[in-house]
Amino acid sequence: MDFVQVSEEEGDEPIELPAEEDGTLLISTLQAQFPGSCGLKYRNIDSKAVRGVRSNEGRLFPPNADSDWGEYVYFCVFPKENKRKSDDNLENSTAKTKRIETRLRCTDLIVLGLAWKTTEDSLREYFESYGEVLMAQIKKDGKSGQSKGFGFVRFGSYEAQMRVLANRHLIDGRWCEVKVPNSKGVGHQVPCKVFVGRCTEDINSDDLREYFSKFGEVTDVFIPRPFRAFSFVTFLDPDVAQSLCGEDHIIKGVSVHVSNAAPKAEQSRTHQGQNYNYNSGNNFGMHSYHPQGNHMNSGRNGHHRGNNQHNLHGGDNTAIGNSHSNIGSGGYGMGSNNNYGGNLGGGYTNSSNHNSGGNMNRQEAGIPYNRQNNFHGMNQPHNGNVGNSGWMNRGHLDMPNLQALGINSQGSSSSNQGQNMNNPLGVGLNLNSLPMNPALVAAALNQWSLLGNQLQNQNQDQQGGNFLSWMAQNNGGHSNSNINSGGRKGPNNPNNSGSSAMIKGDNSASNDQQNGNSWSNQSSGSQNSVDKSNFL
DNA sequence: GTTGAGCGTT
């Protein structure tokens, strides 16, 4: 195996990194040792100039034609933190400060709720689908060696870490919670959402998405309706969002202004969600955009009905490697999750598990859940890659980490816990039993742009129902009902008997205009006075 | 031999 000598900065002590068989060096390998780096350069002996190393699709290519890295010591290239040079005079430009540090540095993550049987190997195997795992550890009893049911994992890239933190995790049959140790909440400390002012009415969400995607992966676009001359764009990477703040951009010939969407969000968060009353019937629209990727849904606890409402709206419905799988059976969220994007590849099982895109069902198949190339090219902000070619298999973004928010009914359904994933629904969902913290929920929903869509027109391309709107509707009178009755058969669901699955917003594929309408905007009392704060 | 909220022998 060939090794490439790499140091963070020219002159630093190099680390030898293993090259691949074809002689290339994976950027992920580089980033494992140099988080935040995006490329390599070296000092050419002859010209004395610094030369960049060719980079393509997550690989770095040796400068010599014979796949030889030579005897050079390469040093890291880090992305420019901010294109604007003006107002940040506190930043100097050393390579180390460009590493954007605390925010982008990977930390150990605690994994709670592991099955007793989960081993360090299986833990690692599970998380490797998100990116390189530098460490996977199970905490065990010193004497017996028995797992204590939690562990730690560390990733080589911040992006992998973000994705992991943003999702729920079914590991060896247990829904596990992943958090930054000793932290409460989920999500990012740095806001991912920007406010886009001076919009005109003809700038639609696709325009915004297309335009802003060149700076980084856009996870959501929200345009308040009725038209208010502003919109919100959410990026996967908070630093991309931050880098754009304060800038003017021209979209469709219109100069729009990007600014921070955070301040009022902070107020909302710190004031314990004062604007959000979840039992009043307010209708919180669905986070509308679901990037390509795996949408893993379990009906076990009845929390995932919202996933049935994935609107893949026009233009975005290219569905690269989509995989929407339902795991479990009989629960809410079952049965109506059908194929998006026409790539149904897996099998339906007899318990309403819908595996599309070839992902295996962990429960049924007993093999690791395969996220299939979900991991895209790591930190590549401002790389000019747009759309499908630039962002591969964007996944893990479909659901907030509700468990980490305390929206978790494991505790309320203990009799049904454990490995019995195929009969979860004696439990139903007792909404009042959910330990919800409105502030946390609001924060999370804001994080995922789940709030504020209530004003969107049903026929907009950015809409749909969601978990909370469903909650709001069904819990209007604090009724203590377990919602586990009735239901109707999903039109495209061959396995849904309709006996227990209650389906709202049937996913009758390609139903942009219909999907979710059955339960969006049904409530009363939502805010109609729209200003920026209503969306933060 | 059990368990199910937690925070790691560095």
TrEMBL record:
Q: Which GO terms describe its molecular function?
A: double-stranded DNA binding; RNA binding
- The residues covered by the RRM domain are 107-183, 192-263
One Pfam family for this entry, by name? RRM_1
Compartments where found: Mitochondrion; Nucleus
One BP annotation, GO: regulation of gene expression
Q: Which residues form a coiled coil?
A: none
Query: Which SUPFAM superfamilies does the protein's record reference?
Result: RNA-binding domain, RBD
Bias (Low complexity): 308-323, 406-423, 458-500, 510-529
Question: Which key words are in the record?
Answer: DNA-binding, Mitochondrion, mRNA processing, mRNA splicing, Nucleus, Repeat, Repressor, RNA-binding, Transcription, Transcription regulation
Gene3D superfamilies the record matches: 3.30.70.330
Q: Which GO terms describe its cellular component?
A: chromatin; mitochondrion; nucleoplasm
Q: Where is this region: Disordered?
A: 287-323, 404-424, 458-536
PANTHER family, sorted: RNA-BINDING (RRM/RBD/RNP MOTIFS) FAMILY PROTEIN (PTHR48033), TAR DNA-BINDING PROTEIN 43 (PTHR48033:SF9)
- What name has this protein been given in UniProt? TAR DNA-binding protein 43
